Amino acid sequence: MRSRFYAAETVPFIRASDYLNILCDGRQRTQVKDGIMKIDLNGTEAVIDSKEDTVYFENPARFRLAGDVDGGIVEKQEFNVITPSVKNKSVQTGGSPLTVSLKDYNLPAVAFEDDILMPFLALQNTFGVISFNNKLVYNGKDYFNAAESVMNAVVGKSDNIYETPYMKAYYSGPFSEKTNSTQAYADYAYYTTCLLLDLTFGHKEEKNITTFDEYFTRINAKKSMTSTSPGLALTSEVLLLNYLFDSGHDSIVNTKTVYGSIETLDKSDASQVVDDIKSSENGEEFFDEARKIQQEESDLTVDTIMGALLEKGLNIPESVSLMGWMLYFENTRSKDYGSERLDYTGDTAVIYFNAFKDDTSREPSYYLDPIKKEDEAVSTFAFVYNCFEDIKKHDEVKNVVINIADNGGGAASALVSVLGFLSEDGEVRMTLRDIPAGSYKEEYYHVDTNLDGVADDQDGYGGKYNFYIMTSGQSYSCGNALPYFAQKNGLAKIIGSKPGGGDCVLGTLIDAYGYCGAYSGMLKFGTNEADGFVSNEKATEVDFVMMPSILDINNVPWYDPEGIADAVHRYQNGEKTMTYNEDQQTDDLTKILEEIFSGIVDQMSEKSQDSQE
User: For the segment 173-212, what is each residue's pLDDT rounded down to a tens digit?
Assistant: First the structure.
């Protein structure tokens, strides 16, 4: 193991008090004595011990947020139409204190005057990540909110976002003049990434990971991840987050960097990383020659890393299936269908929306500034509220279908809002596991669905309508959690095909080079069962199967209200599975899959190109 001390000129150090003032908005109380800093926040204590090189959290969940439960899924600033339940008390199992040994990551804590100096990412990937607020990046001179700026660039898809003064400053610091990092900086980048993932990655158990340093060493990835070439290190991170973690939540969001300039990703780098991993003791588990996808040399539309992996015989990640679903819907949904809509057919109303959007913390609130039609574009609560205001005018409606078949997720508070409408009294029950705190939470919220300012039994529409939720393999994250909690709590029946998964709340990764990624984070939806915790990843069972086979994908009435209503009526008549005539089935499944995969390749190429421009 290399020396745990870095030269200050090669690795950015920051006063712990300065970082905590930014993170906590000055709400914390700190005192330093004999090289030990004690931080009091939200009625709990954290300690930085420069003598032992440790960071200690008495209760990491309460440090994140104090409320009816520690570190709840809905934050205080979202308490508007959503409030903690009075009727049902939230409960949690006792959490455990968390001690982080900075020595294990070659990260020192140094007593200095009346403060403690620490490498910037040692603070961000402990205090920042525990607080769900690890958003900053250092460009060699200043600190910038990378998470907000990159998400605006990626999600907003603005052509000129990188030309704004903020983004120009972000990418033009002293680090931008460098082409290679020092070994000390490369090690700092590697170990701080290990630290973040060790504390908060939600799928460590499933992937048999004890520590990420051991994992990266075991699969021969450590050499490339500690390379002084930022491009090679990035290639390893792309492989890690996009392929080895194998989830729709795990991906590099943007390959722009504050450190040097990478015009293109080098295919030889990808081949080197793949060869190293494949030659490791456990590397073969990621590869399967029998499933190798052959590509013509002329077909180079796939991005460099995906191309190298496929040529080496990498198993296609499950996330590719998710992308296939997404592209299928993009190609079959009419351009004028919209992002949210309400349709009626006979005794059935179909509410459709393709993302869970959160504007519940808006100022002024809906109580002072009533909901308008334009609010629907930014708030799922506003949209669903308006839907039910209209549905109440239709006495013939007995069934309400929430169509989230092509909904990839979004804000957890919006998920709570929708469950409130399905409830018979506005009450919502959420169950989850808090990984760093080691606790299990049963959280209860109340949604004021009638906006009368009173959290009472007059809220919710359960019992007034028969509720159904329509899902597919594209129903991911919150789109997977909604049918899970609705089914678990008896709020709705599930129709369509099995939802796509995504049991963890999204985490944010920003490494020392400024690469921004997303990963399966530290809060995992699921339920404590007799045999232990069971996540919601694959737990939802479809009550009425509308796609018995992939061959039937084109026959499912994904966007047809009449077809959806027919499925509801079939279920009500005792049927369990939709049946189609043989001549309705698509004969050439291979052609469908080829078209979907071709679309995935094109999309990945576009993403790779966009991130480098």
Answer: 999 998 889 999 999 999 999 999 999 999 999 988 999 9
Both tokens of 128, joined, read 């920042």
Instruction: Characterize 37-72 residue by residue with b for buried, 16 or more Cβ atoms within 10 angstroms of its Cβ, and e for exposed.
Output: bebebbebbbebbbebbbbbbebbbbbbbbbbbbbb
Q: Which residues contact 56 (CB under 8 A, 6 or more apart)?
A: 46, 47, 48, 49, 97, 98, 99, 100
Write out the DSSP string of 555-611: TS-TT-HHHHHHHHHHHHTT--B----GGGS-S-HHHHHHHHHHHHHHHHHHHHHHH
Please give the single-letter amino acid code of residue 20: L
Longest dimension (CA), the chain: 80
Does position 295 have pLDDT exceeding 50, yes or no? Answer: no
pTM above 0.70, yes or no: yes
Torsion sign over Cα 568, 573, 576, 581: negative
- How far apart are alpha carbons 237 and 243 in whole angstroms? 10
Kindly report the length of the chain: 613
Burial class (CB in 10 A: 0-12, 13-18, 19+), 564: buried
Terminal-residue alpha carbon distance, the chain: 38
How many contiguous H segments (helices) and E segments (strands) does the chain have? 18, 24
Per-residue pLDDT reduced to its tens digit, 123-157: 999 999 999 999 999 999 999 998 887 766 665 55
Gap between the Cα atoms of 345 and 325, Å rounded: 26
Work out the number of other CB atoms within 10 angstroms of the CB of residue 510. 27
Q: Cα-flanking dihedrals φ and ψ of residue 191, to 5°?
A: -70, -30
As a dihedral over the C-alpha atoms of residue 543, residue 546, residue 548, residue 549, rounded to 10 degrees, the angle is -140
79, 365 Cβ separation under 8 angstroms: no
Q: Note the pLDDT of residue 313.
A: 55
Q: Which helix (H) or strand (E) holds 431?
A: strand 427-434
pLDDT over 70 (residue 101): yes
Nearest to 221 by CA among 260, 279, 292: 279
The per-residue DSSP string of 192-242 comes to HHHHHHHHH-TTTTTTT-S-HHHHHHHTT-HHHHT-S-HHHHHHHHHHIII
Please list, in sequence order, all residues whose beta carbon lies within 8 angstroms of the beta carbon of residue 9, skipping any fewer than 6 positions away. Answer: none
The per-residue pLDDT for range 324-340, each reduced to its tens digit, is 788 889 888 999 999 99
